[in-house]
Amino acid sequence: RPFFILELLIDVVFIITLLPPLRKLYCPAFFNAWLAKDALENMLNDLNRVMQKYQSALSQQVFILACLIVCLFFTGMAGVNYMERPSPKYHKDFGPFNSLWYIVVTYTTVGYGDIIPQLIPTKIFVMFMVMLAFALIPVQLDQMVYFM
Question: Is the pLDDT of residue 87 over 80?
């Protein structure tokens, strides 16, 4: 499962940071939001099996969609905030709030252009996150329509 691979990657990086020469290596703990979303989705699916009600299943799918959107925003915000730290304009443009603002404006395809990432890895990360959002949100909406 992809969540097992994600958890393994986070744990390996965390274990490596325990070694003295690599103590300052950054551990991307913000990816744990996806693990929490997966656990929450499994709990809600088990609850739906017990209750056997379609109204509750629809409300659970809406809640899962909301969790997906929060995970996308949080992962994007934390990733952009982390990746833009070496940039000379970091303190001016990319604090936590401005990173969230940039991600929300980018995901909603508004694109004001007031905040622009300076580093190439950040731009690649944002492109990947937008493609991920455009792939995951319609799948969740399709599952939600199934329960209507």
Answer: no
Sign of CA dihedral 33, 63, 1, 39: positive
Show the tokens assigned to 53.
């009600």
The b-or-e profile of 112-137 (16+ CB within 10 A means b, else e) is eeebebebeebeebbeebbeebeeee
pLDDT digits (tens, 9 = 90+) for 9-47: 666 766 666 677 766 666 666 667 777 777 777 777 777
What lies within 8 Å, CB to CB, of 66 at 6+ separation is: none
Compute the average pLDDT of residues 102-117.
88
Using left for φ > 0, alpha for ψ between -120 and 50, and beta otherwise, residue 13 falls in: alpha
Rounded-to-integer distance, Cα 10 and Cα 78, Å: 15
- As a whole number of angstroms, the distance between CA 129 and CA 75 comes to 8
Predicted TM-score (pTM) of the model is 0.71
In the predicted model, what is the mean pLDDT of residues 60-86? 86
CA 20 to chain centre: 30
85: nearest Cα among 75, 74, 97, 94: 94
Say if residues 129 and 82 touch (Cβ distance below 8 Å).
no
